[in-house]
Specification:
This protein is mostly helical. 33% of the residues lie in helices and 4% in strands. The chain is built from 4 helices and 2 strands, in the order ββαααα.
Amino acid sequence: LEIVSNCIYDPETGMVIFTTKHFSLYGVGYNKITFNDVAESTWYSKVVTFIAAREITKGTRGGNFSPEAKLTRGQFMVMLMKAYGIVPDEDAKDNFEDADSIAPWANEAMQHLVETGIIRGNGGRLNPTGIVTRGEMAQVLYNLLGSLIQKY
């Protein structure tokens, strides 16, 4: 079985909405994922289980998600790629060599993410040079996937 990561259930229509690159037979299932360190009362509980159910992340060791753990940019990029069904490059030395060239377009991209509500910041600050936590990453991926699916 293959998990389709870009799907969402629409309770108004009773349908599951997703995109695919090929025709095949599909079955609808529910892949409930829980983590020992993610209480249902936390702000990120829904989004963490959403991305884990779609195998965008598998969490950390011992049945934990480690929502306060820090991510490298590379780890974040792999999760982002998985969210959009892009297979990460197996040869890591071919990536992130052009990090210095990111600055010219970072401002426009950040502005777009804020205007569309994908990134909301924390305490009125975006902290673009800070390190993202796994919980924050889960929220951004959830917002991105939600905005993509709402187009259809």
